[in-house]
Specification:
By secondary structure, this protein is an alpha/beta fold. The protein is built from nine helices and six strands; from the N terminus they run βαααααβαβαβαββα. It is globular, with a radius of gyration of 16 Å. The termini are close together.
Length: about 210
Amino acid sequence: MRYDLVIFDNDGVLVDSEPISNRLLAAYLTELGHPTSYEDSIRDYMGSAMHRIHELILERTGQRLPAEFDDVFHARVFDAFERELRPVAGVDGVLEKLAADGVPYCVASSGSHARIRVGHRTTGLDRWFAEERVFSSEDVGRGKPAPDLFLYAAERMGVAPERCVVVEDSPLGVQAAVAAGMDVYGFTAMTPAERLAGAGRLFSEMGELADLLV
């Protein structure tokens, strides 16, 4: 293994949540008077921490989202997760191989700890991720594309940034990994390859990842 730590993004990389959450986000923003299509949501918000959604709406419209926005959105997402969420195809095999080979790994997500945990419990991925392997943008001051979250995860896991590889599916996440001085592999299952151009390697099937890492 060429790396001492594999850092996974969560949404779209471990759990197939992006179609669900972006559908609901587009609908909720539209409901609040900010017309947003599913494609708009994928382009503008995929990989974002919640604060970035608030910042972009304020910047574009001069209006603030309601104080209860995060709570309402998360309630809708969690309800849909319980009914619809699945793990990304092939990810169990990747995690099983890393664990068998004794390769350290963790998750570093723009989502809240609650969102990560609901998704992992629903899909059964919680068996791979003990509490000390889970990091959220809630743990740092700035979310992606700032490098803070990835640097924090590496520090907590005791690995130098240059010995880490990040697995990401969003342009914001790729930017954050590059800014952190880490290698990054871009997962193109939902994101066009050209939008992940900053990644050192690109792959479209999660089952390919284990072989790419050695």
